Amino acid sequence: GRACVCGHDLSDSAARRRARRDVGILFQDPESQVVGATVEEDVAFGLENLGLPTDRIADRVAVMLERFGLDELRLREPHRLSGGQKQRTALAGVMAVPRRLMVLDEPTAMLDAEGAAGVLAAVRDLRSDGLTVLSVTQEMDEVPHAERVVALKDGRAIFEGTAADLFADERLLAELSLGAPLSAEVALELRRLGHRVESLPLTIDDLVAELARLSAGASAGPAAMSGVAAPKAAPADAGATAVPRAAATAVAGMAIDCRDVTFGYEGVSAGSPAVAGVTFASEPGTATALLGPSGSGKSTLLLLLRGLLEPDAGRVTLDGAASGTSEHRALQRQVGIVFQRAEAQLFAATAFDDVAFGPRQWGWSDTAVDEAASEALASVGLPRDEFGTRHPYSLSGGEQRRLALAGVLAMRPRAMLLDEPTVSLDPAGRRDLVAVLRRLREGGVTMLLATHDVDLAWELCDRRLVLRGGELSAAGAWTPAVAAGSWQGDEGLRLPALVDLWRRLGLLSSPHPVPRSAAAAGAVLAAALPGGVEGRG
């Protein structure tokens, strides 16, 4: 075949070199392209290589630091940054250099809502300046922002068109193992239940307008809903990969207690600890969302809870056992953790050996190791017969994340600490992950999820902790009132989409609880609208 980029024929080596000057690229793993000693130096690196005048470099760097919210971090060493801050640094460095084409690989994967909105705004600015942007994404909510969509399967382009055309084709979505924006998923459920949704809504605003049209003058709010019994929702994990027996078996969840914990990294200002005086308790078997903007201390707190870092002050207890005791050390073995950079915990020569490592170290029998590792691989959609002999670094970013999770599941933990568990997962992988985590919770495992994915948090968690600047700014039950009320204003966060939909429809005080899945929302709304499924029955 033949490939041309910005008019350069890539079959010619000289043309390839010229093309590199016209193309900027953001890699999936920002750590692989952050090279400066400070954030400021990294953003300036590409400009310096072009030999631009010092004053022009300084001006351009200042613009990029401000655009990506990095002003206060300009002198910070990159290895001291959170995952989201590293991604913003890499983006600023790429976008600082004038280009004709920008290739962005998962540009918002590690960002909070505010950071993601900033990236999308920067992309709009690039397009308005006449630049071409090619963005690779697993985030279906970002797809409608594109003028043109290309979908790949097994290295081949099998769809090219608009976002509306893609999401309207349920057969194609199933073939690609893709989902759709929540608004489209709710509308598709309405269609399946007999309502004539004319134009597929791709945003919550569009869905609210379509519901108003379907109501044909009747209220789609509390009055219309009050007499409708909530129908049984489709299982939230329908179609997900089977969960291993180890994950489904009931266990005694672990109590995790954190009292006045403070921790600061060496070389960072003593007045700005990564975690400052944090106090909370997670009861056995609960699922808690750890929320907050990038750099708020979420990852550090998980490392402290697992005992991989020691607090400067305060204490962490597991089932009442204080850190430093032999009982606490024994309990730590029953706490699994999946890091934000999943590849950091993969080291064996094959995927199977990586998952089997923990059980082998614990002295399990060969039969028990084989069963636990095989079931854990199957539970995350990486069946042993297909992936068992693969090298971990030959897997995609999403597959590596699932492999790291399998390695933890194989040891059958009583508590799970997960740092951005959905990063790099495609919609099918996300659905499988949610199914696994839901059944773990139902089996009694205590879970803490550090995440920017508030929809995941809403789907799985009954409690939330919100960190800002290392301090705990909010904690407690994860209810619709909390989500739509005081929590809504927290920096860098957004409403879960289903809570936002119910709020806009005026249904937060209705008899119908806010659904935890698009299928459940569609079923409730279908029954409430004129000619609803119950009325037709």
N- to C-terminal distance: 57 Å
State the shape: globular
User: Mean pLDDT across all residues, rounded?
Assistant: 86
Question: In angstroms, what is the radius of gyration?
Answer: 24 Å
CATH class group of the largest domain: Alpha Beta
Poorly predicted regions are 219-248
Helical stretch count? Answer: 23
* DSSP strand tally: 17
Helix percentage: 40-55%
CATH H-level superfamily of the largest domain: P-loop containing nucleotide triphosphate hydrolases
Largest sheet: 6 strands, mixed
Q: How many domain regions? A: 3
| Order of neighbouring strands in the sheet with most strands | 13-14-15-10-16-17
CATH architecture of the largest domain: 3-Layer(aba) Sandwich
CATH-defined topology of the largest domain: Rossmann fold
Secondary-structure class:
alpha/beta
Fold and architecture overview:
The protein is of the alpha/beta class and 537 residues long. It has three domains: 4-137, P-loop containing nucleotide triphosphate hydrolases (Rossmann fold, 3-Layer(aba) Sandwich); 181-234 and 479-537, no CATH class; 245-478, P-loop containing nucleotide triphosphate hydrolases (Rossmann fold, 3-Layer(aba) Sandwich). The chain has 23 helices and 17 strands.
